[in-house]
Specification:
Blueprint lengths: L3 E5 L25 H7 L2 H9 L27 E5 L11 E5 L3 E2 L9 H11 L19 H13 L7 E6 L12 E11 L23 E3 L5 E3 L2 H6 L9 E2 L12 E4 L1 H21 L6 H19 L5 H7 L5 H14 L4 H9 L8 H16 L2 H10 L6 H8 L1 H6 L6 H6 L3 H5 L11 H8 L20 H17 L5 E2 H11 L10 H6 L1 H4 L3 E4 L6 E4 H18 L12 H9 L9 H20 L2 E6 L5 H16 L4 E5 L2 H10 L10 E3 H7 L22 E4 L7 H10 L7 E6 L12 H10 L2 H7 L8 H5 L2 E4 L5 H4 L2 H6 L11 H9 L7 E6 L2 H15 L8 H9 L17 E5 L8 H22 L15 E4 L3 E2 L2 E2 L7 E2 L4 E8 L7 E6 L2 E9 L7 E3 L2 E3 H4 L4 E8 L8 H8 L2 E10 L3 H5 L35 E2 L5 E2 L2 H12 L3 E4 L3 E2 L7 E2 L3 E5 L2 E8 ...
Parallel strand pairs: 1-5, 14-18, 14-19, 15-16, 15-17, 17-18, 20-32, 21-30, 21-31, 31-32, 39-40
Antiparallel strand pairs: 1-10, 2-3, 4-7, 5-6, 6-7, 6-8, 6-9, 11-13, 12-13, 22-26, 22-29, 23-25, 24-28, 26-27, 27-28, 33-34, 35-38, 36-37, 38-39
Helix pairs in contact: 6-7, 8-9, 8-13, 18-19, 22-28, 23-25, 24-25, 41-43
Length: about 1200
């Protein structure tokens, strides 16, 4: 049976034109691949590529770069490639081969692994002997005869002039940080190179060992297409609209460098490529004969549809019926019959129903047994299995649908008859199995709406209509799930319809009628919240809508109820003095210290007396310290009654336990939310999906949830379902709403804080009547900390800089810090440096690390580096894993020359190069894709249970985000290689990882993304800030700037432009989300960017400002005919880099004024900063043009007073 081929390409900045990259050292995407990284471990290889930049491979005199097997993919010139032994221990003599134009050399690595050997032999009906060592069940297939047999079978399925080659890149690409695979192009295979062999190497290797790769040439000029990603990037265009993703559920077909692609997957890939090429043509940004390419894609799509056949799932259904060689029977028997025009399914059905004997003797007995099983099933099950043959499903997926118990476990709550009546229920409900192999909509849709001749094999001879409500609803569910993954809990009706229409390629589009959907609302309401009468009409996943309503209602009821005050004579101030010392015992100004103590005491009262409360505050205000005092006081007041401490991540949980220890050193137990849900049956243990119902409830008198801003709506809603709130006296959320929004749907913490603090006017204007609770009751549940009570935090320039990115009104001094940053006039805990290219960034980073971490140069530089991360240099000495979090490099992105992956590679090469080289040559081989070695700093990337050593000393659990050190690697005489890691949060134990466990658990951690560091802090942080990155937002910058304890080193590209830009409310990621908690906030269909009205302040002119008071000032100016600009830079008369950002630059008939509105003068630190800013206006001669207005003591503003000021000062 003919198969197509997928080939992974290493990213190339010249679009694989047969030449060396123009900027090899700046291509951070290619080193994601291990073989590139290993080659670049030798600096001479990098230098050689740099010298040959832009040169054709054909002119390199035999030398070739490590990416040479990919570089010719779209080149009109050929060259000679040298094949080198993929198994380093053999080092067989190399062999050469002529590479024609438009050629690649992929290897089918999956087929060369012992782990896959047995399954491949069963699927392909291969009779190949096992390994020489019967116990060898993992690793590479070593024996040459077995290698050759597997390679012959693999390449035998690829047929020139018939098979297609799909070329793709994995996560090493500059197009999208979150996409692991993107299609680059496709071509018809025109030539397949002959099987080659390496040279022999007596006495150990006297046999002929086959070369794994083959030269694959495609007819690109006549039968192929490449998407113009490079042309878009080079011309400054955004390529996001033309990015072509691989089909859903097809990850295995696009893995292992070279792999077979089925006709069904090829259909999906061609449809997506066609969609992208059509967009290229419509956008008309890049010249080319796109019309001809579209014509070829349509032709080849028709061809592949015919080859796919009507029953791609027949083999998997046979395996469900017990035929182990079901896949082979499908390929070798059924497909040839289909191509001859036979009704192959009718033949197989006749065998299963006992009406005909199997004509193929080798399959006769297993099919006879399958017929017995078939007869034993009831008619509904047989009809279901007959339906499943239409879809290309794996045997595991067929079993998950056909086996009732597995079906229920995967979340498919439907009977056989219901699935037969609506197969689209499968993608609507399926949560996947242990491998998370969720069945995508496209797979079912191709079976329900086949193209070309395939459609005649449908039972009724007809495809379902394109706007069949079953199809429309399933597409809506898929669209809404995607939206939820990107933060939205609902979409407007119009946006949903647009996304549905664009979901499928043009030829298979789903174009529902709005009015028809409204008339069929009852059908959609089964799984969707379909509000056609809303303003605007919206659609949401029913479960998310239910959770938002439940959360709103439960919190509404709790806000109205209060606990009894603390006992007579009790004083939280006394407890605070016990914890922090007597008044005036710090270096803080007395009024700051007193205010900090007062607001903490008030916060403690709120937490104690409220049934529901929120403890919030900007970084450095002492939220965790207040929490510890509260828990101590609670135990004094009520005894050691259970308090349930929860956190969204494992790292946050560990920090919560550490920072809330009792005074005697004993630890209060804390759990991740997922631990609690798993223990009580709210998480499916097979696939870790949330369960919406059926779990048991937990309770405690007091429940505290830390880092609440990280919790998405679905998780928060299920958490409240998992708590018996009738037995909970206090539910407390702790967090900072200025941090990054959750990964997942919604922004519940931000919406909750917004509702609690909203004034009466806002609540009556925007919120539903049920939530129009008096402000006095709502604000009584909000414990807000504003003062930084530690002297180092109060004076922190880095934290003052971070204040400029608060969601609420910033402090008056934040623009002073921005100006000082532009002049690099900062000191104390803040440094700022500027860079223009990655080489300068690399040098700056190395320089600042050297000084601040006390690193040395030379051959023994690794010793000082070891000390900086906690590795002892003394033989037999004790490591200091707590120092693993002494310093940290942070960056907004993972893949870029300034991304975490590339920086980790450079740091490791610089300070672990010797160990890496030794490990590759002689020692225990490096572990995993990132080549982890002894002494590396690593991070755990998922929560997992794991036995610690010594036993019973640690938690036997490693949390996502824990940072540690590799203290040992070894290759035992028997069994797999091992790596031992000790984590900073559990320094008393080590955890063991085997080689095959490393990639799924650990990554290098010298550099982390800001997202990964959320919930952590470090003594010294090196924060890299590029001018542009897809992940940049106001919240990301604030989160990054607040991860330090002692020193923040900010490395910004070019200047302070990005710091200035990200101050704007328009740069918020949180505000762009659609949510429906308390108030419906969705993007209007007529606008581009939208910001939720209950979270923003918009003037009459549409300008977004930071406070309601500023809205009143702005609208007063507009009403009086006075022009204004918001936060326009005002420079000093001597130095343009010395500037401030007045709230309003006001213009009237040629006169200019600078209006500053002050909102928090009662706060000492705020007043202090304002006095400094006022002095700047005076020094620079602007004092006469300065207009000042203030909020009242209670935060109110008198609009009449604002108008009078404007009339007196401006209108004269």
């Amino acid at each position: 049976m003919t198969a197509h081929l997928s080939v992974r390409l290493v990213w190339h900045d010249r679009a694989w034109d047969g030449r060396i990259c123009d900027s090899p050292s700046e291509n951070a995407y290619c080193v994601v691949q291990q073989h590139i990284r290993e080659a670049f471990a030798d600096p001479s290889n990098i230098e050689r590529e740099q010298q040959a930049a832009g040169c054709a491979l054909a002119g390199l005199d035999g030398w070739q770069p490590p990416c040479s097997r990919d570089t010719n993919a779209f080149s009109s010139i050929g060259y000679t490639i040298t094949h080198r032994d993929p198994l380093d221990f053999r080092r067989l003599p190399s062999a050469t081969e002529e590479m024609p134009p438009y050629s690649v050399c992929p290897s089918p690595y999956r087929w060369m692994r012992e782990e896959n050997f047995r399954q491949i032999c069963e699927d392909e009906r291969l009779d190949i002997r096992g390994p020489d060592d019967p116990k060898r069940q993992a690793g590479w297939v070593l024996e040459p005869d077995r290698q050759l047999a597997l390679l012959t079978s693999f390449w035998g399925h690829v047929e020139k002039r018939r098979s297609l080659v799909f070329l793709y890149c994995n996560r090493g690409n500059p197009l999208d940080e979150n996409l692991n695979r993107i299609l680059v192009g496709v071509g018809r295979i025109s030539h397949i190179g002959r099987q080659g062999f390496f040279g022999r190497k007596p006495p150990n290797f006297v046999d002929s060992y086959p070369i794994w790769s083959r030269c694959i040439t495609h007819d690109f000029e006549n039968q192929g297409v490449r998407l113009p990603y490079h042309e878009y990037l080079n011309a400054g265009h955004d390529p996001s609209s033309i990015i072509c993703r691989i089909p859903e559920g097809a990850a295995l077909d696009f893995s292992y460098v070279g792999e077979h692609v089925s006709d069904d997957t090829a259909v999906g890939a061609l449809e997506r490529l066609l969609q992208s090429v059509q967009l290229v043509k419509e956008e008309n940004k890049i010249p080319g004969d796109w019309h001809a390419r579209i014509g070829w894609l349509n032709d080849v799509l028709s061809e592949v549809w015919r080859n796919r056949g009507p029953f791609p799932g027949a083999g998997s259904v046979l395996q469900f019926l017990g035929v182990e060689a079901g896949t082979a029977f499908h390929r070798q028997v059924l497909m040839p019959r289909i191509r001859q025009g036979d009704t192959a399914w009718a033949y197989l059905l006749a065998i299963l129903e006992g009406r005909q004997e199997c004509e193929e003797k080798e399959y006769a007995e297993p099919l006879k047994q399958a017929a017995e099983r078939w007869a034993a099933y009831d008619p509904a099950r047989r009809r279901l299995l007959s339906l499943l043959v239409r879809f290309e499903l794996t045997p595991t997926q067929v079993k998950r649908i056909a086996d009732v118990d597995e079906r229920i476990g995967a979340g498919i709550a439907a009977s056989d008859d219901e699935l037969i009546g609506n197969p689209y229920l499968i993608p609507e409900m399926d949560q996947g199995g242990p491998d998370l192999d969720v069945i995508p909509l496209e797979v079912i849709d191709r079976g329900m709406r086949p193209e070309m001749d395939v459609a005649v094999y449908m039972d009724d001879g007809k495809r379902i209509p394109q706007d069949d409500p079953r199809r429309v609803r399933a597409c809506a569910v898929t669209v809404l799930k995607d939206a939820a993954a990107n933060g939205d809990t609902l979409l407007t009706f119009g946006e949903t319809l647009r996304r549905i229409k664009n979901h499928f390629p043009q030829g298979r589009s789903c174009d529902p009628d709005r009015d028809l959907m409204s008339g069929q609302a009852s059908f959609y309401q089964e799984v969707l919240d379909f509000r056609v009468d809303g303003d605007p009409p919206t659609i949401a996943l029913r479960i998310l809508s239910e959770l938002e309503r439940e959360v709103g209602e439960r919190l509404r009821r709790r806000v109205k109820r209060r606990n009894s005050p603390s006992k007579a004579g009790w004083s939280w101030v006394t407890l605070l003095r016990k914890a922090f010392g007597e008044a005036h015992s710090t270096k803080l100004p007395p009024e700051v210290e007193e205010r900090a103590r007062e607001e903490k005491a008030k916060a403690l009262e709120v937490l104690y007396e409220s049934r529901f409360s929120v403890l919030t505050g900007r970084a450095g205000t002492g939220k965790t310290s207040v929490l510890k005092v509260f828990l101590n006081g609670l135990e004094e007041l009520e005894g050691r009654r259970q308090a349930l401490l929860l956190a969204p991540t494992g790292k946050a949980r560990v920090r919560l336990m550490e920072r809330t220890k009792r005074d005697d050193g004993s630890v209060r137990d804390a759990y991740t939310i997922h631990q609690l849900l798993m223990r009580n049956g709210w998480i499916n243990p097979e696939n870790f999906a949330l369960r919406w119902e059926g779990g048991s409830q937990a309770s405690a008198p007091t429940v505290i949830v830390d880092e609440a801003s990280m919790i998405p709506m679905d998780l928060f809603g299920v958490l409240l379902r998992a708590l018996d709130l009738n037995r909970v006296s206090r539910l407390i959320l702790v967090g900072d709403p200025n941090q990054l929004p959750p990964i997942g749907p919604g922004r519940p913490f931000v919406d909750i804080v917004s509702w609690l603090q909203a004034d009466e006017e806002t609540v009556k204007k925007l919120y539903a009547e049920a939530f129009q609770i008096p402000a006095e009751q709502r604000t009584a549940c909000l414990a807000r900390l504003t003062e930084r009570a530690r002297q180092e935090d109060h004076r922190s320039l880095a934290l003052q800089l971070a204040d400029g990115y608060l969601s609420e009104h910033p402090t008056p001094g934040d623009d002073d810090l921005l100006s000082r940053a532009a002049r690099q006039d900062v000191s104390g805990d803040l440094e700022i440096h500027f860079w223009r290219d990655h080489a300068q960034l690399d040098a700056l980073l190395a320089s600042r690390m050297k000084q601040l971490l006390e690193l040395t140069d030379g051959n023994e530089a690794y010793k000082s580096f070891n000390t900086s991360v906690g590795i002892t240099n003394d033989k037999g000495g004790t490591h200091a894993p707590l120092r693993a979090e002494h310093w940290q490099i942070l960056t907004p992105v993972r893949n870029h020359e300034f991304g975490a992956t590339e920086i980790n590679r450079r740091i490791q090469a610089r300070y672990r190069g010797g160990i890496l080289d030794y490990s590759r040559r002689k020692g225990t081989r490096p572990f995993g894709e990132q080549e982890l070695v002894w002494t590396d700093k690593v991070i755990q990337i998922l929560n997992c249970r794991r036995r610690g050593y010594p036993h019973d000393e640690g938690l036997d659990y490693v949390a996502n985000g824990e940072i540690g050190l590799v203290i040992r690697t070894q290759k035992p005489l028997k069994g797999s290689d091992q790596m031992d890691v000790v984590f900073s949060t559990q320094p008393e134990v080590s955890y063991r990882y085997y080689r095959n466990q490393v990639d799924s658990n650990l990554e290098l951690a010298y550099a982390l993304t800001v997202h990964k560091a959320q919930g952590s802090d470090f003594d010294i942080v090196f924060l890299i800030l590029p001018h542009n990155a897809t992940t940049l937002s106001r919240e990301l910058l604030y989160t990054g700037l607040t991860r330090f304890r002692r020193k923040m080193v900010l490395l910004a590209e070019r200047d302070t432009g990005v710091l200035e830009r990200l101050r704007s409310i328009q740069e918020s990621a949180t505000l762009l989300r659609n949510t429906d908690l308390f108030v419906t906030a969705v993007r209007p269909e007529t606008e581009g960017k939208h910001y939720a009205n209950h979270l923003i302040h918009r003037t009459a002119k549409g300008v977004l400002v930071r406070s309601k008071s500023e809205v009143i000032v702005a609208d007063t100016l507009t009403r009086l005919g006075i022009s204004y600009e918001y936060e326009r830079k005002l420079s000093s008369r001597q130095d343009p880099r010395d500037f401030r950002l007045p709230d309003f630059t006001v213009s009237f008939e040629g006169d200019t004024f600078y209006w500053e509105h002050l909102g928090m003068l009662s706060v000492p630190s705020y007043r202090e900063q304002w006095e400094r800013k006022q002095e700047w206006f005076k020094t620079n001669g602007y004092l006469s043009q300065l207009i000042i207005s203030e909020d009242g003591v209670d935060g109110s503003i008198d609009s009449a007073t604002i108008e009078q000021i404007a009339r007196d000062r401006i209108l004269g």
